[in-house]
Amino acid sequence: MKIKKVITLLVITAFVLSSGIGYVYAGDKCTECGKNAKGNVGVRQEKLYKALNLTDEQKKMLEENKTKNTEQMKATFDQIKEKKNAMREELQKATLDMGKITQINNDLKKLESDMLDQRLQSILGVRHILSPEQFKKFSEKMKEHKGHQGRRGSSGGNRD
Fold first, then answer.
1. In angstroms, rounded to a whole number, what is the distance separating the alpha carbons of residues 51 and 45?
2. Which residue range is the domain that position 129 belongs to?
3. Cβ atoms within 10 Å, residue 116
4. How high is the mean pLDDT of the chain?
5. How far apart, in whole angstroms, are the C-alpha atoms of residue 66 and residue 123?
6. Nearby residues of 59 by Cβ (< 8 Å), 6 or more positions away
7. What does the CA dihedral 127, 130, 132, 135 come to, rounded to 10 degrees?
8. Is the pTM of this model over 0.70?
9. Helices (H), strands (E): how many in the chain?
10. Is 17's pLDDT higher than 50?
11. Quick check: 62 and 126 in contact, CB under 8 A?
């Protein structure tokens, strides 16, 4: 029972923090900072790096972590997209092949599980790079940013 609670807590933490990691690597509009993130990711990122008082080595390691995880996530996402298309096609056929449908569904579950594992690895990578104090501050910044996103979403903000 205790193991289930720990695993659940880890998964929830991974999800919350992984959505925050996107803040550092964001590519959409940030209405709170008034900047188009696509053109000013470096500005916002440097602001965060400065707030965390990162060394050049930490910055480099975070960039490497981001690049590695972005590539892995994109590859997994592309595979999920392919499987969903395959499922859609199978479901449109006049005669259903339940064996094939079940296999595609199992593949999808595995890929989604892999994506959760990748998110956790990304978070653990950030955690390894930052000091405990920096990680605490980073987590606070991510919560703060998530709060901004929530207000933006409820006020009808545009994410384009």
1. 10
2. 2-154
3. 14
4. 78
5. 10
6. 49
7. -70
8. no
9. 5, 2
10. no
11. yes
Do residues 26 and 44 touch, judged by C-beta distance below 8 A? yes
- Domain count of the fold of the chain: 1
pLDDT in tens, 66-82: 999 999 999 999 999 99
| Other CB atoms within 10 Å distance of the CB of residue 27 | 9
Query: Mean pLDDT lowest for which of 30-39, 89-98, 116-125?
Result: 30-39
Q: Has residue 14 been placed in a domain?
A: yes
How sure is the predictor about 145, in pLDDT bands with cuts at 50, 70 and 90? confident
The CB density around residue 126, as the number of other CB atoms within 10 Å, is 24
Position of tokens 């707030």? 51
Question: Residue 119: which residues within 8 A CB-CB, separation 6 or more?
Answer: 14, 15, 18, 73
Residue 159 lies inside a defined structural domain of this protein: no
Residue 94 CB neighbours (<10 A): 4
